[in-house]
Amino acid sequence: MSDSSEREERPAGLHAEEIDEAEQVVGERAEEMALGEKERAGARGRRALTTAAWTAPGAVWLLFFLLAPVMMIVLVSFWTRTVSGFESVWTLENYEFLFDSNVYWEQLWNSFWHSLVIVALSLLLGFPVAYFLAICVTSLRFQIALFIIALAPFWTSYLIRAVAWIPMMGRQGALNTALQELGLISEPLDILLFSDFAVTVAMLQLYILFMVAPIFFMLAQIDRSSLEAARDLGANAFKTFREVVLPQSMPGIVIGSIFVFILTMGEFATVRIIGGGTVSSVGTIVQTQVASVQFPQAAASAVFLVLAMILGVFVLLRFSNLREDL
Amino acid sequence: MPGRWTKRILAVYFVLFLLFLYGPMIVMAALSFQGPQGTVTFPMRGLGFHWWNELVSGSRADTIRETAIRSLQLSIVSGLVVAVLAFTLSMSYRRRFRLDGVLFYLVMLALMTPGILLSLGTSFFWRFMDQQTSLWQTALGTNVVWGLPFAFLIMVAVWNRYDSTVEEASRDLGASGFRTFREVTLPLVWTGLLGAFLFGFTLAWNEYDRTALLAAGKNTLPLEIFALTVGSVIRPDLYALGTATTAVSLIGVGLFLLAAAIVLRRRAQTTGDVREEYGDVETSGGLAAGVPGSHTP
Amino acid sequence: MPDEQTLTQREGASTAPSPAAAGTGLELKSLTKRFGEDVLAVDDVNLHIAHGEYVVLLGPSGCGKTTTLRMIGGHEEPTSGDILLDGQSLLGLTPDKRPTTTVFQHFALFPHRTVRENVEFGPKMHGISRAERREKAMSALDMVGLRALADRRPSALSGGQQQRVALARVLVMEPKALLLDEPLGDLDRLLRLRMRVELRALQRQLGLMFIHVTHDQEEALSVGDRIVVMHDGRIEQVADPFTISNLPANVQVASFMGDNNIFEGTVTATEGDRVSIDGGDAELRALVPGADAAVGQPAVVSVRAAAVQVGAQDASANGPNQLLGEIEVIEYLGDLVKLHLAAGGRRLVAKVSGDRYPEFQGKEGESVRLSWKEEDVRLLRA
User: Fold this and answer.
1) Same domain as C136, residue C65
2) CA distance, residue B262 to nearest chain A CA (Å)
3) ipTM greater than 0.90, yes or no?
4) Which domains does chain B have, with CATH numbers?
5) Does residue C8 lie in a domain region?
6) Are A260 and A316 spatial neighbours (Cβ–Cβ below 8 Å)?
7) Can you say whether the dihedral through the CA atoms of B241, B247, B248, B249 is positive or negative?
8) Do B297 and C342 touch (CB under 8 A)?
9) Residue A49: which residues within 8 A CB-CB, separation 6 or more?
10) What is the pTM of this model?
11) Which residue is closest to B121 within chain A, CA to CA?
12) What is the reported pLDDT for C317?
């Protein structure tokens, strides 16, 4: 073989123009189909009507039972309290009251941080579960079965699960009894129930599935052969995880974090039962105000709750493009 | 691909995770089977169906039965409405119109809004319109809003996997739009609809936040349970109740799995099965082999 | 006429260019892979591949070609046997530690990274500095003609472009052996035809060892220096394309390569180099120097479709290597005409020049006289 640099005018490589040309021939059909779709879309009148017909029932329902309520909360927070509820007289007294109340801000701040902690914990504890299900389990059937088994508690009443926490974590509960039997502790641990720790654990148990599910979905979509390709190109197991798996699971992490954050911020029933009145949160405050018919006040409290949540969600959304990744 | 040890450790972790999730419910179920000496917590005192009896025929039994029936009715209706709305919304979403992004986020908003806010807001809204909140208006409305996003996501996923050219084929063969829907589309997506219904049902069955302020005195089961927990002494019959309601939920999930499994098995006939039944095209003398007048080996 | 005996005994003429790497090459020794209890995917495979060779593993699905390739790449571990590259065993080495890289069938690009980042991935894993790996990536992209698309995501690229990214990604690694797992399978036909020519040219320019897995016979003939035909986990024949095509070793190879007419029968007579076979309704005589066939032995022979001569039906269709057949389907393929015939209960294929199409046009159902030379009757191993 003679010296290749003498024979060739161009360096080693593919003939890109010819390849592109060969591909053009195929591409045409795709173009035609796209044009056909556009044409059908262009039949505006009738098409738009059908779409509207399909959208209407759901949209109306959501309008009445989602949008209207949320807007009402904002409105009522600016209205005055009456004996029977509220009247549409504009006032800022609700917010004044709120700004004066230290307890409220403290509670809001606490709830905010508490939620962030729970988000972080659920991520740390939940990611391995999602990873196991999506990547370690190879049979699709098993994947789905185990996923449903893990998810089943979601379909049970969270109230009941919260109630069941008492016999589990109480002074004479299962965990304390077991620990004592095993000789690990000599006296029952009090902090297991009716404390911040207990609340955290209880909420984790209730909401961690909201972190596991989205991450699972994202991980399940990862092309296995791209993991092999990464190994092939020199990445060890850890680097493969960091460079290929983790980035692709980000949308799931973001969605999961948003869900968990919102749910923990807004809850109250759990706290009431598990915290036993010693632990309070914004949600509890809203409930007590409502019970004593202080609607505008409750609304104002709720609005700040909403704002705090939106802030959190905003921050989280900066990390991902939700719609595209789904 | 993770190594063998990684897989094992993660498997153990998964089991621990399941215990963590199911722990309280198992404990509760166990405690519901105590004898008359049974109390709210360990140790187990006696064994028997005493508290289950108490649940069914004790002092609070009537209220409980009433609320249970009410819950059942509300949940079934909620499930049906959710399935219908999820279906219609997903059909509209399929068509990719200009505002479909707005629609999507609106539905997601339903998922992300805390229940207490919806209850509060809805009660305000109804008050504002001088209407009374009631089980079948407001409570139903809000429960549907809760279940809708999940059901919507399921239907969207179903449509994604659906090959709409089968509809074209059906029209091509002479079926009208309606018949195509009934004969081709519906059989292929009914599992999604079942999932939507089940979501609507179980979520309403268990829902507390959204029903709390809106049922106007007519308690659903979760509301009743809350009242029992906070208001009075907790006895093991509550555990029996809790176990029973959980069982209903899990049965619902189980039914769905069963239906899905049946459908998947029917569709999962592999090429290997077909080859066993009919042989290879090559060995059986080709496609023309069955035509009268052609040669066969 | 090439010396038939010499050709069948050698593994075929290697037309490989001067190799880029020095060394003894790749050696597969008694390589076996068993999945679980009952699936024997690869059965005692022995093969040597020199640097600079373009070798194709060819066979139907399930024949073990992909599993063999994956074992070379380290994505499967053999049950027994050894894999040596330049004298060093690769067993136990994970893929990231092997000097081989793989092009995957569905490209396996990283969807969350741009084209350039995809190509830079390998160097990044090997600790190459940012400036240097950027430079390497861009020159690899130049090689495949995709410099302009360097900052796009894979999802924005066409199939052919994605495949070129996959190529660039492995070329930048300068591996000792490039493994290709059905690389053209996801591409449309015209593109496939174009790309296989490009792959061939590229390989010769680079002088790299290419190991290419495919089930497409034509593709294999087109690109390979040597073809390894596999069936049921075993190697059936290793030879250059000409030999595989004209002198298939046994029934599996002959029938898989297609366009071979296969006759089964018994040996009726042997006269020196001539072997007569009774195939039931057909009588054949093969000219096989050095064959040791005994009368009464079962035998299988094949006749290439291109070797079948087609003429008008006339009275004489007696004697060996002749048959009357009825035209069932006529395929006009431009340069040639494929005639699918039914003769005495079997189906035969004949290929004639495309110029002769007017002769046969519209003659489906008519009978013709088929004949072939005894040199073209190939005696196959059982």
Assistant:
1) yes
2) 13
3) no
4) 72-232 (1.10.3720.10)
5) no
6) no
7) positive
8) no
9) none
10) 0.77
11) A69
12) 63
